[in-house]
Amino acid sequence: MTTVLASPQQATPARPRGARHLLAPIGVALLAAVAAGALYQVFVGTTLGQRVDTVAMRGADVHHPRVVEVLERTLNGTSLASMVLVCLFAAVFGMLRRRLDLALGAALLVVGANVTTQLMKTQLGRPDLDGFAMPNSFPSGHTTAAASVAFAVVLVLPQALRGMVALVGFAYVSVIAIATVWAEWHRPSDTVAALAVTAAWGAVAVFLIRVRRWNAPGGTQPPSRLVTLPLLTIGAVTGAAGLVGLAAVTMSERSMPDLVSGRFAFLTGSAAIAAATAAVFLVWVRLAAGDRLVTETPLEPAKPALQKSGVPAPAGRRVKGGTK
Q: What keyword terms does UniProt attach to this protein (predicted)?
């Protein structure tokens, strides 16, 4: 009696994550730390840098009622209580998703970024090189608080919601950062440095999360173009405007102080802030992307068993097999 044994069904094992997946956050953290240090050296440690930074802050003579209302409401709404509530939401949501690693990563991000910012503000010196006596304000605490909370919320949310929340967070952080310059609380370099500090701690948190999930199959889902394209567009436009404006303001402060107006310098600083915010959110939506689950490959259909006559069994009919 002729019989055929059915071949066992086996799933193709998922490939392990590559070293790039684990090392990318470390690279981002190092670059962000270097950027913060370079900003301090240029815009705090040099006379020209301080003058360019200060003229951008003092040129914020905005009198449009609607603009002033938005800036004032945004600054007044950024309180410690609101930050704590959002952090609690991030922690609880991470726990509800049964992702303790995301909840802990969000907490590390918020605490680490804000503590680092406060230590830098108190420990770093600011020589009076521009004749505008003012205590050290590098980096911005308001901007760090807003950016770290926005990053934390994006991190704990499901992948389907992260894109929309990232765009809202980008708009909110941009307004906060520009509003602190408009209120003459901070210079543009203070806010950009705060973004760099937040990005560094966010990358550290993602690195620890990826270490914990190193053996999980798959990688990360790339962010949707509906998120990346607006950020890329805004970042490119404001970045170009900021670079051209910065060159003009620098030339003016070096040789012809009355070449550009204070409002032009403020708009230049605002463009640079918007570009930096778009850049860090672009990086963050990629670092914080959700896990891409690897499904098993379709199983190969078992070869049809042969009947006694050698004719294949009809489709859908179960044929007994085995040995006697």
A: Membrane, Transmembrane, Transmembrane helix
Mapped to the 3 state alphabet, what secondary structure does 10-55 carry? CCCCCCCCCHHHHHHHHHHHHHHHHHHHHHHHHHCCCHHHHHHHHH
DSSP class of 291: E
The token pair that represents 13 in the structure block:
């094992």
Contact 207, 27 (CB under 8 A): no
Q: How far is CA 104 from the centre of its chain?
A: 17
Distance CA 180, CA 164 (A): 25
pTM given for the model: 0.79
Q: What is the DSSP string of 120-175?
A: HHHHS-----SS-------S-HHHHHHHHHHHHHHHHS-HHHHHHHHHHHHHHHHH
45-65 pLDDT tens trace: 999 999 999 999 888 766 656
Residue 166 in contact with residue 285, Cβ under 8 Å?
A: yes
| Cα gap 150→170, rounded to integer Å | 8
Cα distance from N-terminal residue to C-terminal residue, the chain: 10
Q: Is 289 helix (H, G, I), strand (E, B) or coil?
A: coil
Q: 184-236, pLDDT tens digit by residue? A: 888 999 999 999 999 999 999 999 988 887 766 555 677 788 889 999 999 99
Q: Which helix (H) or strand (E) is 194 found in, with range?
A: helix 188-212
Q: Report the C-alpha gap between 197 and 167 in whole angstroms.
A: 20
**CA distances in angstroms from 73 to 67, 142, 188, 281, listed in the order given:** 10, 14, 20, 23
Beta bridge partners of 220: 291
Residue ranges, the chain, pLDDT below 70: 1-18, 61-82, 215-220, 290-324
Q: What is the pLDDT of residue 129?
A: 84
